[in-house]
Amino acid sequence: MTTRVRIVAGFGSVADERPTIDTAMALARALEADVAGYFVEDTDLLNLAALPFAKAMRPTDRSVLTVKLSQMEKEMARAAVNWRRALYASAGQARIRCSFETIRGAYSAEIARAGAATDVVIFNPANLPHRRPDSVSALLQRFEQAAGAVILPEQRPHRRGPVVLVATGAPGESGLFETTERIARATGRDAVVLSVAGEEDADQRISDLAHMVFGSGIEIFRAPGGTLSAGAALLSQLEPSFIVLRQPEPAAIVDVFLKAGQAPMLLMRGQDD
């Protein structure tokens, strides 16, 4: 990744955003990037709170609360202040330049709009007021203009496993190997390669690139049959701390990989093309 990027971190009033901050700091160190935090006062949530007898579920203990519009506005303002302080505190310790802005609109649309062509956008699906089974893959259509997107898992176990690069052996993946190496170095984790190449030539390209970037000691795991579904099953066994891959086709496989890996997933686009 030769072009300097910016990390765009999306914040909301629903999710625990400590994983968002941790992921933003890790990527900023790895990619030598600044961080731009955007807190979205979600109009969908505000519209729900304006309805009579509106109720909300607290994410921490799953308790159900009756909410009012004025209460929701205060909660959002309080959350914005708290996450701004937390982001600046982490950035100060890591000596990373950052900014923070509060905007109003639909969470997914506003975070997507904030991302430019060289940015990596961090998105937390827990902030969506309406969840669909295919919500993650549907979100990716909004980030086509960004260099990459990080999707956070719905639940994030505290894992100290490797940074896993999922490689297909297709042209244009060499930048993914370099990015994975930098993330592993920045986070103090090992890097491993998970090959989902369906052909022998593609698997050989993966092996050659892996040894060139990571050295001869790199571990390469091969999914049986070279299928993405088999790769997702193997990914679960690796218990990754971070996942890197080129956005696959079909996009619905992203939901499968996210559930299997339960770790932040960096989806890159357009490298070396």
Question: What key attributes describe this structure?
Answer:
single chain; 273 residues; alpha/beta; Rossmann fold; 2 domains; ten-stranded mixed sheet
Q: Can you offer a commentary on this structure?
A:
The strands form 2 sheets. The protein has a 10-stranded mixed sheet with strand order 5-2-1-6-7-12-11-8-9-10, sandwiched between helices. A two-stranded antiparallel ribbon has the order 3-4. It has 2 domains: 6-151, 3-Layer(aba) Sandwich (Rossmann fold); 163-268, HUPs (Rossmann fold, 3-Layer(aba) Sandwich). The protein starts with 5 loop residues before the first strand and ends in a 5-residue tail after the last strand. It is built from 9 helices and 12 strands. It is globular and about 60 Å long. The chain has helices at residues 18-31, 43-49, 69-94, 107-114, 135-140, 174-187, 200-214, 228-238, 253-261, and strands at 6-11, 34-42, 55-57, 64-66, 98-105, 119-123, 148-151, 163-167, 191-195, 219-222, 242-246, 265-268. The longest helix is centred in the N-terminal third of the chain and has 26 residues, at 69-94. Helix 1 (18-31) packs across helix 6 (174-187). The chain is α/β, with parallel strands linked by helices.
